[in-house]
C-alpha cells in the first residue's frame, strides 16, 4: 500500500480518538509497563514514545499499536532502560 493510501486510513478516524484507543490497547497489552507513553499521529503515521524495562514490552506495545492502526506506518521510539 502506498503512502497516500496510508494517510487516508489515518485520517478516517479522528486522530485524538485513534491515539486514545492505541494508548489504551498498548497499556492493556503490556500490563501498564510502558511509562510516560505518548501516541502521536500525523501525516507520516503513528509514533509511540515512552520508556519500558524490556524489549519484550516494547515489542508488545508495537504489536498492540499495529493491531489498532492497520496499514499505517508505525514508528516505535519507546526506549528500553
Describe the structure.
This protein is an alpha+beta fold and 81 residues long. It is 49% helix and 28% strand. It is built from 3 helices and 3 strands. Strands 1-2-3 form a 3-stranded mixed sheet. Helix 2 packs antiparallel against helix 3 (55-68). The longest helix has 16 residues, at 15-30.
Write a brief caption for the model.
The chain is an alpha+beta fold and 81 residues long. The protein has helices spanning 3-12, 15-30, 55-68, and strands spanning 35-42, 45-52, 74-80.
Structural key phrases:
alpha+beta, disordered N terminus, 3 strands
Question: Helix-strand pattern, N to C?
Answer: HHEEHE
Share in helix: 40-55%
Tell me the overall shape. globular
* Overall mean confidence score, pLDDT: 88
Spatial gap, N to C terminus: 34 Å
Unreliable runs: 1-8
**Biggest beta sheet attributes:** 3 strands, mixed
Q: Helix/strand-derived class?
A: alpha+beta
Could you give the order of strands across the largest sheet?
1-2-3
Structure annotation, total helices: 3
The number of strands is: 3
Strand content: 25-35%
Radius of gyration: 12 Å
Give the helices and strands, then pairings.
Blueprint: H1 3-12, H2 15-30, E1 35-42, E2 45-52, H3 55-68, E3 74-80
Parallel strand pairs: 2-3
Antiparallel strand pairs: 1-2
Amino acid at each position: 500500500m502506498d503512502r497516500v493510501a496510508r494517510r487516508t486510513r489515518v485520517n478516517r478516524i479522528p486522530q485524538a480518538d485513534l491515539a486514545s484507543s492505541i494508548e489504551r490497547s498498548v497499556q492493556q497489552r503490556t500490563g501498564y509497563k510502558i511509562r510516560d507513553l505518548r501516541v502521536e499521529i500525523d501525516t507520516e503515521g503513528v509514533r509511540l514514545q515512552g520508556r519500558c524495562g524490556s524489549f519484550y514490552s516494547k515489542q508488545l506495545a508495537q504489536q498492540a499499536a499495529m493491531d489498532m492502526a492497520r496499514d499505517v506506518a508505525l514508528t516505535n521510539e519507546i526506549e528500553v532502560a
